[in-house]
Design goal:
By secondary structure, the protein is α+β, with helices and mostly antiparallel strands. The chain is 47% helix and 16% strand. The protein contains 43 helices and 35 strands. The strands form seven sheets. The chain has a nine-stranded mixed beta sheet, with helices on both faces. The chain has a nine-stranded antiparallel beta sheet with strand order 19-18-28-27-26-25-24-23-22, sandwiched between helices. Helix 32 (1004-1013) runs antiparallel to helix 37 and helix 36 runs antiparallel to helix 37 (1107-1128).
């Protein structure tokens, strides 16, 4: 038994050491002699007294508590804030003013009938706001809680919201209150830890977090269950990444493993103020009278989760809304669609008409009132002008006219559609649900549906003119495979890339079989698609440069930040890496014979194939430093000491920074390697240069001292100082070779781009890759094709290179600027000169260095003008800032709708700058998705999102708004005409409740159904005829011409209804008893005609009927008659002139039914005739497609080609354009031969 216990203890110890696979960015001890001038200054003023939360000085700093709120409103602020939001809209404010005036004697109707519709509309909007805020609250807590426990459920619930509701009702699903009331162990003094709620934590508390628990605040890691104070952290809630991150506490606190050891623990932390940067932390800790530098390695962020570690002890540094995750939870920039902005202008236009009508009516009213009493003779005796109040007093006619203008403003207010905003918001929310539930945009492999994160931009999806796309992870899979390499000037690797196969197709040669299909290929290995008999199976030991090959793969096995995971059962090693290409490199090294299997705080262990003995031998390298990769350095290095005591710097990076760092005697293979790198780029591969150097002991000590000083400098310049020190050591390198990894195109990308191009959408690619790689990816996805003229703008000219050697920065800048200006001007001349001779397509390709100058104020106009005249634009070597600036230039310069799509953190600026940001929920985390307006899982879903949902949403919203203005003008103008008929007396034609309920009950539901369900053509036809999409880009359906046309239709309808009704009922008897029609009968008849006309007009405008639309249209008309019966049965004191008007007067009278039929048909004839003539002789594009569908000629190639020839814009990119160009080329050749 004792022996068994000892074995178990040894097993536990082995597991403990095995899990301690952590690296340090500054391995080894470091002194703290850096500059502390920034501490206490702006941005670095936070002071934390560890284990002393009640310290007086901590108390006066008034740090935030640890409770959080993820909602826009609270119960106390909901009412005032929501009301303020609603009455910021000018239309709502107008109706509020008229509602207040309704309590005065000026009102043409009762106050309750004016207030009720406003109350319903505002109330509905506030309820919607409240529900959305509640859903935000629910979603944030839900994702925090269940996103970890049941990862798949997070996405499934986009389809089944009922699950969420059930969980909430069951008390399973937590909200803010539940999160704030979670419990964690806190040091209460004397070495005792007790559970307390998260909300009670304060800055300085010492907490103990157990395995699988979330961190309750931003903590400074003091120690863990491992001796070297390391822990594993899952950051999925922060960045969406599922791979574990490793954190390490300071060595001075790593021995604090027991609760009682914290009874007398005291330390003071000085650090940066709260900020949103998840990946930086600058500070120092004073412990036992010694200063120790702090870095992001010691910071555990709130909402991260402790994994594979039994417990950690940490000091609370940031709480509540000061934590980095909450600092990052700000809303994205507010975006409004162009249609919504234009709608505001139409509202203002209607206000102008309203004020004009009130002004003109008041003038006529004043004149008529003044003439009422002329020398004692009363013209309108029934108004008793000799004994009237001020409102009708002939002696005070100007005052009466002013008062009448206020009455008219209230009465003509029905021109303004009070329910427009809330109806549109309801429709957009329902449209978003349809997008989320579209099974055709659901990526089953990753369990990710589409997700519209905002409903404000639905119709904007149908108006996209330019797409600006990232490449890696967006067009490609971001799933790297090691496929080729160049070592000692020799190219290795027999694999064939997708780009090479695409180039074969372009050149007309037969396709080459994928290497995976070769018979000697074993089971495919993820990340490794390399085969070459000269290297594989240990054959590399027979190559001439065996030492270089050994160093090459040794570098791949050591120079990385991957973490090995050894399967205890099989002994197989897998790797968790920060990027897919890094994982591919370590896997490649393992497959060749250099198996990295263990990482500790200060060492790397691997098995190598010894070229002399042919046996596997274990090598241990002492890890001294890791010099991190970033976008500006474009390289990564590690410094290690081997078993022979040699200090080696191993470096891998981009060719643009690596070749210039080679020593004179380290360039032996430079020429051949450079050739191979260009060949790999031509094949669409991503390349890295590998090099190394040996450092003597003294040189390393000097470097380490300077690096420690830079790391210990607690200032904003810390990163710059570290980079300067690193730059000096990463020189005089010896070249080993180059790697080439393939990032395959996502499924369906070429077809999607072809459809988008057929839709007339311009596509720009903004990538950080080399120009050659980007060009060949362009060919693979059909953005480029044979015969397309490439306009390449770059600065790789002999003149610029000569100036760069001289080092005169001002001269370089001036010459570069002039070179870019000249190249853009010459390219523009080429495009202009080709216009008259042929329709040759052009592609503009520009690198990042050139883009810097092209985006300057005095050149960017020329650059944009050239770019929009080209079929394709590819910007290579682009930085994240340049991506955002290009997006801004296109958006502001063209005035058209732009859509940016990307998947990584480097795409966030671009997504937020564009009119619409689409995030790809890929393998680079969730930064892009969290900053996007819409999230999809694959680029190919963009086709359906735009061509189907975008087209439908644009058409629905446009038609809906036009119809809203039509129905309100039809109704409102009948009131004005009655005013004219009644000498502008201010007396409405309709009963008060008729006026009040028109917008709410008798015309709203059918238009909402139109906005949700209407389709001009089906989804299949939207994708079959992509040029339908150009109706949105050209804004044909919401142009001023179309808007004014609908308004004119409203005026015509109102005129026909009013005059036909009045003339039909003016003189003759209305019923068999000989009674004539009064205001009650005329008003009810006109109102009936209006209800029929606006609803039947809707029926004529709808292209796609559903059961719901039938119910809403015919149900609304039926509800009007039901309302007349019920309302007319109420006591006359309430129903006033509508008392039994239908039962006793209208229904028994044949003339009522005849007039209604005649007026309704007559009113609809103008629109019906116009529509028939327009569709017969001047059909719009969607009407042509409808005709094809109706005639059953959807598969007739001649008819389809005829329709496509009517396209609004020719297709210049994509496989369709490639085929057309090839056909034209063959046709021209045959013509020339004749």
């Amino acid at each position: 038994m004792a022996e068994l216990g000892r074995r178990r203890m040894r097993g536990e110890k082995r597991k403990k050491l095995h899990l301690s696979k952590i690296y340090s960015f500054a391995c080894g001890k470091s002194s703290f002699k850096g500059d502390h001038s920034q501490i206490g200054g702006r941005g670095y003023s936070r002071l934390v007294f560890c284990n002393e939360p009640d310290n007086f000085e901590a108390g006066i700093r008034n740090y935030a508590d640890n409770s959080v709120r993820s909602t826009k409103y609270t119960p106390a602020t909901f009412l005032p804030k929501s009301l303020f939001e609603q009455f910021r809209r000018v239309a709502n404010f107008y109706f509020l003013v008229t509602g207040i005036l309704a309590f005065t004697k000026l009102a043409p109707y009762t106050a309750v009938t004016a207030i009720l519709p406003l109350t319903i509309v505002i109330g509905a909007t506030m309820v919607k706001e409240g529900i959305e805020d509640w859903r935000r609250k629910k979603q944030s807590a839900y994702e925090l809680y269940f996103g970890q426990l049941v990862p798949g459920l997070k996405n499934i619930t986009n389809f089944n919201k009922e699950i969420v509701v059930f969980l909430q009702a069951s008390g399973i699903l937590p909200q803010d209150m539940e999160v704030n009331n979670r419990r964690v162990k806190v040091h209460k003094g004397h070495g005792t830890f007790e559970y307390t709620e998260w909300k009670n934590l304060r800055v300085g508390h010492i907490v103990k977090v157990m395995k699988d628990e979330f961190f309750p605040a931003d903590l400074l890691l003091l120690s863990s269950s491992y001796e070297d104070a390391v822990c594993y952290v899952e950051t999925m809630n922060l960045d969406g990444e599922t791979n574990l991150k490793l954190k390490q506490g300071l060595e001075v606190t790593s021995s604090l493993h027991e609760d009682f050891e914290f009874s007398d623990f005291k330390a003071t932390i000085k650090c940066e103020d709260p900020n949103a940067n998840l990946y930086s932390f600058v500070g120092s800790m004073e412990f036992e009278e010694q200063q120790h530098p702090l870095s992001p390695q010691q910071l555990l962020l709130r909402d991260s989760k402790l994994q594979n570690t039994d417990y950690i002890f940490g000091a609370v540094v940031f709480t509540g809304h000061d934590t980095k995750v909450i600092q990052n939870s700000t809303d994205p920039p507010s975006k409004r669609s162009k249609i919504e902005r234009k709608m505001d202008k139409i509202i203002y236009f209607l206000f102008c008409i309203l004020f004009l009508m009130a002004f003109v009516g008041s003038i006529f009213f004043g004149i008529a009132t003044k003439d009422d009493l002329d020398d004692g003779v009363m013209k309108r005796w029934y108004l008793r002008p000799d004994d009237s109040k001020i409102f009708f007093d002939p002696k005070r006619a100007p005052a009466a006219a002013i008062f009448h203008s206020l009455t008219a403003l209230m009465l003509y207010g029905f021109f303004i559609p009070i329910s427009l905003y809330v109806s549109i918001e309801i429709v957009k929310v329902l449209q978003s649900i349809f997008i989320n539930q579209d099974i055709h945009m659901y990526y089953e492999e990753a369990d990710k549906p589409a997700h519209a994160r905002t409903s404000n931009l639905n119709e904007e999806l149908g108006q996209v003119d330019t797409i600006l796309s990232d490449k890696t992870g967006t067009l490609t899979c971001n799933s790297m495979e090691f496929i080729k390499c160049s070592i000692a000037g020799v190219a290795y690797g027999r694999g064939v890339t997708e780009v090479e196969m695409a180039m074969d197709r372009k050149n007309g040669s037969p396709l080459i079989n994928d290497i995976r299909e070769s018979p000697d290929r074993n089971t495919p290995i993820k990340g490794f698609n390399f085969t070459d008999e000269r290297i594989m199976n240990g054959n590399w030991v027979n190559e001439s440069h065996v030492d270089v090959i050994q160093n090459f793969f040794r570098l791949l096995a050591i120079c990385h930040t991957a973490i090995p995971e050894v399967d205890e059962g099989t002994g197989n090693v897998s790797y968790e890496a920060e990027s897919p290409d890094e994982a591919a490199f370590v896997i490649a090294a393992r497959e060749i014979g250099f198996e990295f299997y263990k990482r500790t705080q200060t060492s790397l262990s691997m098995y190598e194939l010894d070229p002399v003995s042919g046996d596997k031998v274990e090598r241990i390298y002492k890890l001294l430093n890791v010099l991190e990769f970033n976008s500006s350095r474009k390289r990564m290095s590690v410094i290690v000491k081997d078993e022979e005591g040699r200090i080696l710097l191993l470096c891998k990076g981009a060719d643009s920074v690596m070749f210039e760092r080679l020593a004179k005697d380290g360039r032996e293979f430079e020429e051949k390697t450079s050739e191979h790198v260009h060949e790999y780029a031509d094949a669409g591969l991503r390349t890295l240069i590998l090099a190394y150097r040996e450092i003597d002991e003294e040189q390393y000590k000097e470097f380490d001292k300077k690096l420690s000083q830079a790391k210990n400098s607690v200032s904003a310049d810390q990163e710059t100082m570290i980079e300067e020190v690193s730059d000096k050591i990463e020189r005089n390198l010896i070249l080993l070779g180059a790697t080439a990894v393939e990032d395959k195109l996502q499924n369906g990308v070429p077809d999607c781009i072809d459809k988008l191009a057929q839709a007339g959408i311009k596509i720009w690619v903004l990538t950080g890759d080399k120009m050659e790689t980007a060009i060949n990816i362009g060919f693979a996805c059909s953005l480029l094709r044979q015969g397309m003229k490439q306009l390449i703008i770059h600065l790789e000219t002999p003149e610029i290179q000569a100036l760069e050697k001289g080092g005169d920065k001002s001269a370089i800048s001036k010459a570069s600027r002039e070179s870019i200006r000249r190249q853009i001007s010459e390219a523009a001349q080429q495009v202009t000169s080709s216009r008259g001779t042929s329709q040759k397509a052009f592609a503009l390709i520009i690198d990042g260095k050139s883009l810097t100058y092209a985006l300057e104020d005095n050149i960017k106009g020329m650059f944009l003008e050239l770019a929009i005249r080209c079929a394709s634009v590819i910007c290579c070597r682009s930085s994240p800032k340049q991506k955002a600036l290009v997006t801004r230039l296109v958006k502001s310069g063209t005035g058209k709708t732009t859509l940016a799509i990307g998947d990584g953190a480097n795409d966030v600026g671009m997504l937020q700058e564009a009119d619409i940001g689409v995030g790809i929920s890929g393998v680079e985390g969730m930064q892009a998705v969290m900053s996007s307006d819409i999230a999809i899982a694959q680029f190919r879903y963009l086709e359906r999102l735009l061509l189907v949902h975008g087209h439908w949403c644009y058409r629905r919203i446009s038609s809906m708004i036009c119809y809203f203005f039509y129905k309100n003008i039809t109704f409102g103008f009948t009131l004005f005409l009655y005013e004219v008929y009644a000498s502008f007396s201010g007396q409405p034609a309709y009963n008060d409740w008729f006026l009040s309920l028109y917008n709410v009950f008798f015309s709203s539901l059918p238009v909402i159904a139109l906005g949700v369900f209407d389709q001009d053509v089906s989804a299949r036809y939207c994708q079959k005829f992509p040029m339908l999409y150009q109706e949105g880009v050209q804004n044909i359906l919401f142009s001023w011409r179309r808007i004014l046309g609908w308004m004119l239709n409203g005026f015509i309808s109102a005129i026909i209804i009013f005059f036909f009704c009045t003339k039909a009922m003016e003189i003759q008897a209305f019923d068999e008893e000989g009674r004539t029609a009064g205001r009650d009968i005329l008003g009810a008849t006109m109102y009936t005609c209006v209800v029929w006309v606006v609803n039947l007009q809707m029926a004529l405008a709808i292209s796609y009927f559903t059961l719901i639309q039938h119910i809403f249209i015919w149900g609304t008309i039926a509800f009007w008659y039901l309302f007349l019966i019920v309302y007319g049965a109420i006591t006359p004191s309430f129903s006033t002139n509508a008392y039994k008007v239908f039962i006793e007067t209208l229904a028994p009278s044949p003339s009522f039914w005849i007039v209604t039929l005649f007026v309704v048909v007559s009113t609809l004839i103008p629109y019906f005739s116009y529509s028939a003539l327009q569709m017969r002789f001047f059909p719009m594009y969607h009407e042509m497609v409808q005709w094809i569908r109706y005639e059953g000629k959807a598969n007739d190639p001649e008819i389809i080609e005829l329709v496509r020839q009517g396209s609004l814009r020719p297709t210049t990119v994509g496989s369709t354009a490639r085929l057309a160009a090839k056909t034209n080329h063959i046709r021209e050749n045959s013509t020339n031969h004749r």
